[in-house]
Amino acid sequence: MSVTEINLDSTFRFEVRDEHGKMVPKRTYPHPELGYTGSVRFRTISREETYTQEQRVSALYDMRKPGKYTIQVWRRNPDYDIKSNGVTVTVTANGKDPARKNGKVR
What we know:
Layout: E1 13-18, E2 67-76, E3 81-83, E4 87-91, E5 100-101, E6 104-105
Antiparallel strand pairs: 1-2, 2-3, 2-4, 5-6
């Protein structure tokens, strides 16, 4: 994956933890200064408002090992921080799906 494929919103801050509560390190890329395109989007998010935007968190954090990861995102505003609910994702070994047994979905 090239660094140009990350394309995360730079106004968001992410906290990614493994199943033991340990912070997951950011991924490193050779020569990240080359070719990275980003954008800044200005918007106002009020209290009680919901905002949905797809983010490729695994492109920025090293979630390549199988296991459970908890992700929370927040954005700083001048008066308060806006925090998301925590989301837990399960990463499985290539070709393995924990919901399948003998090729059938449970």
